[in-house]
Amino acid sequence: MDALPAIVVDGLNKTFRLPKEKIHTLKERALHPLRKTQFDEFNALRDVSFAIQPGEFFGIVGRNGSGKSTLLKCLAGIYAADSGRIWVNGRLSTFIELGVGFNPDLAARDNVLLNAAMLGLSQREADRRFDSIIDFAELHDFVDLKIKNYSSGMLVRLAFSVMIQVDAEIMLIDEVLAVGDASFQQKCFDEFERIRAAGKTVLLVTHDTGAVQRFCTRAMLLEHGRIVATGDPETVGNRYLQLNFSREARAQLEQEARARQLHGQQPVEFMGDEGARFGDRRAEITEAWFEGADGRPSLTLANGEPATFAMRVRFNEDVTDPHFSMAMVNSQRMQLFSASSVFADPRPGLFRTGEEVTYRVRFDNILGPDRYAVTAAVTVGGGAPLELRERMLSVVVTRTRTTGTLVDVPYVQQVERIDPALTRQEIIR
Question: What are the tens digits of pLDDT across the range 41-61?
């Protein structure tokens, strides 16, 4: 690429020394003046290297303790790295903990101006944007109230509203998507869409794989301070889910990461190839297909006609209460349709070793013309994947008339002539 990277991290290492025992009183120190404090070392980051291009929305996922927040704090200059190098090309703003710097004894107005100054806005700019901040936070009636009397939801709404007003080329964001109620969360999602459309470089740390797949152009998975995967957000997100539920997967990825670092190799780059498989294989999706309105297998589906997705599953071990699901995405990676058996039968019972089943999803095909890829899964126990096959099947949807829409929602049209003598209320009734 012609443009210089926005962020480059090369061989970053960070270790914390954790005391095995703490001396809490002067008496303990006096009684044992020569006792040496022993420490354990915790390797938070181990030889982390990656680059982010300008305009990328880059996601970082990983389990608790994997090093995500430590990495962000090293990038922000809060922590000094033990070794390695970091290059940042552009003005940087960091949003690691919402509300840091707020004074509980000051009113919202004073805290907004103070926090905006800490984030790099001038006094004039903070004054000019104050109304926009309060409008977004929906706190007009509480501007002069001390924020120690705010609820936790009001506080994070105010902090998020200040955050998005900062003019920065590069944004480091740590777990700020789940703020406020449902309507405010949607406003946050809309704001992230605006930030992405504006071409800003964003590094987002989160546990929400749905947000990673929705917003990010690329993602990275950390485990025990090591990079174990980078690349396509959907594939990296699926590997993260596998890590959460599978001890064997964690051990295997840790072993692979150590071997790559030992031989100076780069982390695995997942490009979202069709057919990627995850899970412990206690159940196996052996095949999948679509059926048209005539019930026959087909590689194309006609818009406006009934259609069916089917997959065959074989159980390699006894499994209690498995659930079957599928999701369809279009060529732009937007998920337009999904289905899961958990809503129809949350406790389907025991499936024996060697048993085979066929899972079918019948639907009215209102999808617009495009090629759609299907990811199919068999899960158990709240989402643990027995088998997840990413984009294992594709189908083309055709239609005879062009509407320019992603989906053709059924509708009924009506045109009524209005008597000019009627009042507005009579027309509404």
Answer: 888 999 999 999 999 999 999
d(CA 259, CA 415): 70
The residues, ordered by sequence, that sit 6+ positions from 228 with a Cβ below 8 Å of its Cβ are: 221, 222, 239, 253, 254, 256, 257, 267, 268
Render pLDDT for 222-231 as a digit per residue (tens, 0 to 9).
988 989 888 8
Q: How many degrees, rounded to 5, is the angle at CA 19 between CA 13 and CA 20?
A: 125
CATH, residue 312 = 2.70.50.60
Look at residue 252 and tell me if it is in a domain: no
391 plus 301 within the same structural domain: yes
Rounded to whole angstroms, how far apart are CA atoms 378 and 324?
Answer: 5
CA dist 174 and 153 (Å) reads 17
Distance CA 287, CA 334 (A): 24
pTM score: 0.72
- Both tokens of residue 319? 């499994």
Number of residues that this document lists for the chain: 429
Angle, helix 123-137 to helix 108-118, in steps of 10 degrees? 120
